[in-house]
Amino acid sequence: MARVANKVALVTGGASGLGLASAQRLAEEGAIVVIADINRELGEAAASDIPGAQFALLDVSDEASWSALIDSIVAQHGRLDVLLNSAGVVRLASIEETTEEIWRLVNAVGTDGTFYGCKHALRVMKPAGSGSIINMCSTASIQGGPGIFAYAASKSAIRGITKSVAVLSAQSGYGVRCNSIHPGNMRTPMLQGVQDIVLENDPEAAQAMENIWVGEPVDVANMVLFLASDESRAVNGAALVVDNTTTITEGVVPRTVTQ
Fold it and tell me: Which end of the chain is more exposed for a tag (fewer CB within 10 A), N or C?
């Protein structure tokens, strides 16, 4: 029960979904967790339910806010050991339907937020000679997502950001690892929101979605825990897929498959 004992971990998008599940799992294994989110009400409620956790209001699309938050964490705790970039938004739209507003929103939160997080975490982790940056990506960066064009593009950029940071650190001897996690469909508020929209517009497609494999947030949280821990000290620049073969299966993986 102490795989990340006393490590200081910052989790963005930590008020719900995969971020919340990861924050809970890290705390269970001894980490000091800072939950960052733009939703103060949900974020404060989440932090209050996790022993020792604290909440920080953060707009991930604003670099100055990132810099201030990370500096405050180092000032309070002396270091930052783990950063999980989990904040993200999705909009249902193909490239033909994607407006400039959708494109900029999805990429401001996902791409820009991950860039700023990696940049400022690396800044404070490098002097310590250690640290783990974990970027929440998606199987949409592997398969493509025609109906979530901006989201797929953002996640593909995040995959590139991850590998570039990892190689820089390895070549420069920084001692900081950077990896990405690529979940398939997980039972989160984000997926439920997508399903609700599909149900409203295409009931037949919504029914088909009911018959495919969906994982649980803890499945991803356990991967986050591994990457945050010293058990993964040789894992750097990896794109780790959590999808029960979805990206390599012809057709779909049915819900009835044993997990």
Answer: N
Q: Which helix (H) or strand (E) holds 10?
A: strand 8-12
Q: Is residue 222 part of a domain?
A: yes
* Residue 197 resides in a domain: no
Residue 210 belongs to some domain of the structure: no
- Residue 125 is part of a domain; what is its CATH number? 3.40.50.720
Look at residue 259 in the predicted model and tell me its pLDDT.
Answer: 45
In a domain, 42, yes or no: yes
| Three-state DSSP state, 250 | coil
Which pair of structure tokens corresponds to residue 43?
A: 């974020």
151 as an active site residue: the answer is yes
Q: What amino acid occupies position 6?
A: N
DSSP collapsed to 3 states, 188-201: CHHHHHHHHHHHHH
Collapsed DSSP state (helix, strand, coil) of residue 32: strand
Cα torsion angle, 6, 84, 39, 194, sign: negative
Catalytic, out of 116, 151, 213, 226: 151
Domain that holds residue 15: 8-185+218-248
Question: How many domains are there within the chain?
Answer: 1
Structure-block tokens of residue 30: 């001894």
Q: What is the pTM of this model?
A: 0.91
pLDDT tens, position by position, 124-172: 999 999 999 999 999 999 998 999 999 999 999 999 999 999 999 999 9
Token pair, residue 1, equals 């029960």
